[in-house]
Structure formats: structure tokens, C-alpha cells
Amino acid sequence: MKVFNYIVTKRVTQIFMLLLSGVILFPSCSDDILDKEPITEIVLDTAFNTEEDVVFSLNGAYDALQWQNVGGSQTFPLMQQGVRADDLHSQSAAFWQPGAQYDQFITITPTLASVASVWSKWYQGIARANFTIKTATEFGNFETPGLQDQIIAEAKFLRGLYYFELVRLFGGVPLFDEPIISADQEQFKPRSLAEDVYAFIEADLESAAAVLPIKGGERAQGSATSGAALALLAKVFLYQEKWPEAVNAAQDVINQGVYVLESDFRNNFLQTTEFGSESVFEINYIDGFSTVDFNNVPQAQDGSGMWKWSFPFLTGYNSFNNFIPRQDLVDFFDDSDQRKAATFLLPGQSTNSPGLAALGWDPVPNDFGYAIGVNTGVRKYFLTFEEVQELTTEFQSPLNEKVIRYAEVLLIHAEASIMGGGGNGSDSFDEVVERAYGIGNPAIPAYTVQGVRDERRRELATEGWNRFTDLVRWEMADGGGVIKNALDAVGKFGFNAPRDLLLPIPQQEIDTYPQGMLEQNLGY
């Protein structure tokens, strides 16, 4: 049973709205309004009275992880990572314009609403984390020993995660390390260098890892742990080609001894096995708190919309088939690899759903009717027909989404090691591939740089957090050619570097800033 949900109280939500509105003014409605001095700041000691209030603030910082629609546009990570790369089609683009726009590079522009929504999502999360850090630091009525440090550490983990998403997608971004709660504060900051953003992230994660408990001792199910902070830190080092540091951080996670690969890969993506032995950090979704369609009420997410966006459309099931695996990705898996059947809905495959069988969809048919000629679907977000019938709304799946799994930690360790970081990366690599293929299987690839890259693509396929930015960092490491070769292989053309290595800075942000202060990325 899930016991931790990112729900914010009405009072805390109102405060966050004030934080995000820039200058804060509360004029009086009386006749002598002109004689009143405007209130230009939030006074924290009157807004928070108990330690539970501060926890609610922290839950609000987690809340941004769930948002799959911000400002009227979807913000699914698969849009920026899978569709934008060589893994997924946006097959149903006729009625889902944002997917079509991410499926080709020429339509990714500074005025694209979904780009602005991604930027806003992570910065709102940062604003909430900053607010929580300040609130917890200044709050003097904690009664639970260690809770103050715990809250600050969790908020720093979240802030590090949110800045990591921004720097990977946009490059150097403005750094805000404290909340804007007064009109007297600096409202605008120029873009920081990417290396400075990374340094800020490292400091946050190192600070968080030193305080947070290991898995099993977390404050609440789903809250950040030291293993999550160290795993993300290892990934941050990997993206900067800091090989020894990446090896050491990943080894620290391994040495905690609390993570084990699921013997059945499919267990990573079932409701019955959430927060399992392989889970390092996942987004906790719960159905039943809301009956809203998150597309009509943006940022009102309790359950995930991923199953509805991913599963093939059929009468009575009301799913959208917007994320369709490319055949090249399906064929990239050997048939002996257990991850293949757990990653894709394949022709002839059983879904173990009597309801789908009654509709003629179990086993999976040979022809999905796609115009693109592909007959498969994403399975990692799959719900059986019976599970769908229990939903409060079809837009609110309770199935959690994995952000970091232990398998990725092992692959980070393996990659950083073979790139010169030291350590015994071959053991980590073997652990992942032997789970996938079975010990002694001749299909197991060799432990080489390309072998690690290939297994990273297979292991994390369709999860939404890595593919395009992995191609970008490998492009930088190899001096070019990686992205073009990957896209050419699937017949996807139009990529131009350096323009398409990053998303554009949203034009509405540039227009809001003082003229010339917020610079656009090259090529836009």
C-alpha cells in the first residue's frame, strides 16, 4: 500500500502561487487604500506553525515530479528523450500536435508551448524546493529529532534533480538558490555556465547524501534516500565525463548492499511490486484522489497518464497510442533477452487480461492498424483491462514511474570504469546482462564501450529519462557522428548541430527578462 503522496495543502499551494507570481502585493480594499503600505514579502513565521506545515511544503516540492501537463501542454519526459531521438514515433500526431513537433527538429522552436511548459515545470519545482529549504532552515518549532536536516536534504536532492533535467535539456540556465519571497529581491538572473550549474547540482547531492538514510530507513515510502542522491550524483558525474568520480559514487550505492536486481525484469513495472529491490527512486502515483483529466486542469496530477498515452487505441479501452516504439528499437533486442517481452507489446504475446481477451486483444494481434507499419506498443506503463476499470479516471493511473533503477547504477559504474575511471566495471556489466540474457548465453555482448552503450539503450528503453541526452553526451565524447548515425538508421533526418543538441530557451522567458539578459541557444 502506498503511504506517501505528493499532496499540498490549500494554504501551502496558495503560498507557492505567490512565490511564482513575481512581485507580491496585497492591497487593502478599504477607502483609504492609497494610504496603505503594500505588503511586499511573505513572512514565514506566520505562515508555518508546526513541523507538519513544513513537511507539507516539502511534499509540494515533490509534487512537480508528477506534472504531465503544465500551462496547457504535456511535459512527458518521453517527448524530449524518446520521441526526439531514435526510439519512438508519435504515431497519432494527427490529433496530438506536441508529439508531432518533438518528432522532427525543424518544429522545435523557441515559441513552442511544450518547450515553455518543460522549462516552467522544473523551475516551479526548484522554487518549491528553495522555499522548503529556507522554511525548514528558519523554522524553530521542530519536535522530531533530525527532521529539520532530513527535510532540507530531501529538498536539496529534488533541487539537484530538477536542475539536472534543465541543464541536460537547455544547457546553462539561470541559477536560483533561494526563494523569491520579497519584491526587494533580484527577480532575474542571467544564464550560468553549464559547468557552474553542474557544480551546484553536485554540492546539493553531496550534501543530501551525507544526511539522508539508506533505503529502508526513509522518512516515508517514496521519499529520497542517500542511495538516490548518490545514484543521481554518479549520473551527474557521468554526464560530465568525470569518470573516477562516477565510479566512486556508483560504488558507494553498490556498497550500501540494499539494492538487488529483480530476477524477473517485468517486476520493475507492476503495481504489485512497486518500491521493489531494484528501485532507487521512483515517482509515486496514486489513483482515487482526483477525478480530473489533467489536460483540462494542468498540474492536478495524482495518478499517471502514461498508460493512456502509450497503449494502443481500441474500442472500450480509450487509450491514445502516442508513444510507439520504432521497429529498429524492437529489432535491437535479441529474442532471448527477457527485457524484450517486458518492454514491448509484441504480436502473439499474452497480456494475461481476460478483459482484453474479450475485446480480441489477448493475445496481442499481428496488426495494430498503424499507418507507420509497426505492430508493437510500450509495455512498461501497461495496465490490464481489469486495472483500468478500477481507475477513478482514465487519466490517473496508479502505476509508479521509475526515475533511477539499480540496473542504471550498475551501467553507470560499468561505463565510467571502461572509460578510465577505475573500478571493476565488468562485474557490474555482467550483472545486468546476465539478468537479461541468462548466464552463459552466447547472445551476451562483450564488455566494450559500444557494448555498454547498447545495453544502456536496451535496459532503459521507453522509460523516458535518458535516450536523447545520452546520444548528445556520446556525440561530444566521440567528436560527432553519433546522433546522425542513430537517426539515419531509423530514417529520421533534419538534425543539425549545434542547434538541435539542446532545446531552445522559451521565447516567453526571453521576452519577460530585461532585454538582452537571457541569451538564446545557438541556431534558434
Task: Give a description of the structure.
The chain is mainly alpha-helical and 524 residues long. It is 43% helix and 4% strand. The protein is built from 21 helices and eight strands. A hairpin with a 2-residue loop joins strand 1 and strand 2 (73-74).
A few lines on this structure:
By secondary structure, this protein is mainly alpha-helical. Helix content is 43%, strand content 4%. Strand 1 (69-70) and strand 2 form a beta hairpin.
Proportion of residues in helical segments = 40-55%
In the predicted model, the low-confidence regions spanning at least 5 consecutive residues are 3-41
Counted beta strands = 8
Beta strand %:
under 5%
Order of the strands making up the biggest sheet: 1-2
Overall SS class: mainly alpha
Q: Distance N terminus to C terminus?
A: 47 Å
Biggest pleated-sheet summary: 2 strands, antiparallel
Shape by Cα distribution: globular
Tell me, rounded to a whole number, the average pLDDT.
89
Oligomer: single chain
Number of H/I helices: 21
Radius of gyration: 23 Å
Query: What string gives the helices and strands in order?
Result: HHHEEHEHHHHHHEHEHHEHEHEHHHHHH
What layout of secondary structure does this protein have?
Layout lengths: L9 H10 L24 H4 L3 H13 L5 E2 L2 E2 L2 H7 L4 E2 L7 H6 L10 H26 L8 H24 L23 H16 L16 H14 L3 H13 L23 E5 L22 H5 L13 E2 L1 H5 L6 H6 E2 L8 H5 L18 E2 L6 H5 L11 E5 H16 L3 H13 L11 H12 L6 H12 L3 H8 L17 H6 L12
Antiparallel strand pairs: 1-2, 3-5, 4-8, 6-7
Helix pairs in contact: 3-6, 3-7, 6-7, 7-8, 8-9, 9-10, 9-16, 10-16, 16-17, 16-18
